[in-house]
Amino acid sequence: MSKLRTAARRLLTAGSAVAVIGAVTLGAGGVARASATGTTAIGTFDYDLRGAG
What pTM, to 2 d.p., does this model score? Predict the structure, then answer.
C-alpha cells in the first residue's frame, strides 16, 4: 500500500471514531422524568352528613 492510502485510511478511521463519539454524546442527553407518590398523616376531622356524624 502506498503511504498516501495508509494516511487516508487512518484519517478516515479517526474521523469516523470522532463522529461516533460525538453522536453518542449528543444523543445521550435528554430530559429526565421522575414522579413520586406517597402518603402522609393528616389531622383528625369531623364530617356530618344529614345530621349523622
Answer: 0.43
